[in-house]
Specification:
It is a single chain. The chain has 13 helices and 19 strands. The chain is of the alpha/beta class and about 425 residues long. The protein has three domains: about 5-105, Cobalt-precorrin-4 Transmethylase, domain 1; about 110-210, Tetrapyrrole methylase, C-terminal domain (Methyltransferase, Cobalt-precorrin-4 Transmethylase, Domain 2, 2-Layer Sandwich); about 225-410, Vaccinia Virus protein VP39 (Rossmann fold), CATH 3.40.50. The strands form four sheets. It has a seven-stranded mixed sheet, with helices on both faces. A five-stranded parallel sheet has the order 3-2-4-1-5, with helices on both faces. A five-stranded mixed sheet has the order 6-7-10-8-9. It starts with 6 loop residues before the first strand and ends in a 9-residue tail after the last strand.
């Protein structure tokens, strides 16, 4: 594409043209084509050129903009700073940075912090506008200050309701509406009160600040004790012990944005800790036992983790249609180990890792032979853990069941993984 004239991307606030710089006004006046949302175009009733409204697919509008820009001056109008959770990144990706001049206004996020009297260089920023809120609560776990673009589906009150449901109530909230416009309003809430509020306008920014001064950021490597999870009985509970979880999760190579499968999720301890390691990703917890499914969901509420999707079903059938994983953990197979491994290795992303925990000799043998028959050489670790337990006035060691941890990596290219 050879554009003879640059496209100008102008940021505008809710006060319309009042705060535009002379340079931005000139860009609009010289344009033969003005592009934007209905709300933004209404700020320029005297514009005589062609108007294009962003409706439906943005891609088709940008294709049209690219055609027009070869012969005419084009001005695209967008909210605030178009490169901050705005359409600017799409415009530049489609048309090239060398063809686009950006004239930003302060973003509504910046205005929100100014109106609340809060500094914002230590804040995290999230956009839930037109997006899923899955993982929102998990992201909060490592933050003290968060600003959120909302929408009708993910409104401040809806988000506050979810926070209350999961016990995340030690926050102060500022709801900043119609910033810079004639209907501007800024209100401060307790999260529980915000959950009940019903009179919030559609154009708003939500700012959350932790109110618990004793809060400390969670450990980077989760190491939660079994007693921190609800679990199925008998004896000490059917749950992956924390030492085993630690090594298994490390072997899975989970990244912040990983897609993870936890097959045979049971109480959900592995799924929850995997979700904490992948706050920008998603974890699928597959469990066939109805009681296990219920307990897993209970633990998700207790630990305020919302980027885990519980799948009630038996593997491998229940794996159909799930996102291709970057990491997979098999903690239980119900006698279908070979079939599950086949499906997992087919679906696993290149370079992804599969980790299997096996306790019984039969499972150990089946797992090893399944890998070998497929030309895969696993790393195998035999883990024997003994914990100190009180005995009268003394301490003695009590052994946990020995467990073998198998780990394989799917080849990125032709070859044998290990």
């Amino acid at each position: 594409m050879s554009l003879r004239r640059a496209i100008t991307l102008v940021g505008i606030g809710d006060d319309g043209c009042a705060s535009l710089t002379s340079r931005a006004v000139n860009a609009v006046m010289k344009a033969g084509v003005l592009v934007g949302g209905d709300r933004h175009l209404e700020f320029f009733p005297q514009f005589q050129g062609e108007r294009i409204v962003f409706k439906g697919g943005v891609s088709s509008v940008l294709d049209r903009v690219a055609e027009l820009a070869e012969e005419r001056n084009v001005c695209v109008v967008a909210s605030g700073d178009p490169l901050f959770f705005g359409i600017g990144s799409l415009v530049i990706a489609r048309l090239g940075a060398e063809h686009v001049e950006v004239l930003p206004q302060p973003s509504s996020m910046q205005w929100a912090f100014a109106r609340a009297g809060l500094k914002w260089d230590d804040a995290a920023f999230v956009s839930l506008h037109g997006r899923s809120s899955e993982g929102f609560l998990t992201k909060l776990k490592r933050q003290t200050k968060v600003a959120i673009f909302t929408d009708d589906k993910n409104s401040p009150s809806v988000l506050a309701q979810r926070m209350v449901e999961h016990g995340e109530t030690a926050w102060e909230a500022w709801v900043c509406e119609s910033l810079g416009g004639p209907d501007e309003r800024v209100r401060r809430f307790d999260v529980k009160d915000l959950a009940l509020c019903q009179d919030i306008g559609p154009l708003n920014v939500l700012v959350l600040v932790r109110s618990d001064s004793s809060w400390r950021m969670p450990c980077t490597i989760p190491f939660l004790h079994e007693d921190q999870f609800a679990k199925r009985m008998p004896k000490k509970g059917l749950i992956t012990k924390r030492e085993v979880r630690l090594l298994s999760l490390a072997a899975m190579g989970i990244r912040p944005d990983s897609v993870v499968w936890d097959i045979g999720a049971g109480s959900g301890s592995v799924a929850i800790e995997a979700a904490l390691l992948a706050p920008k990703g998603v974890v699928y917890a597959i469990e066939v036992d109805p009681e296990g499914v219920q307990i897993c969901r209970e633990n998700l509420l207790t630990h305020a983790v919302d980027n885990v999707r519980v799948i009630a079903g038996r593997a491998p059938e229940a794996l159909t249609g799930l996102e291709a994983p970057d990491a997979v953990f098999i903690g239980g197979s119900k006698g279908s180990m070979e079939e599950i491994i086949d499906v997992v290795m087919e679906c696993l992303q290149p370079g992804g890792r599969l980790v299997v925990n096996a306790i019984t000799l039969e499972n150990v043998a089946e797992t090893y032979q399944t890998f070998r028959k497929r030309g895969l050489v696993p790393d195998v670790t035999l883990l024997q853990v003994s914990r100190a337990e009180p005995l009268a006035h003394y301490l003695r060691y009590e052994s946990l069941n020995p467990i073998q941890i198998f780990a394989v990596e799917k080849p990125s290219q032709a070859g044998v993984a290990s």
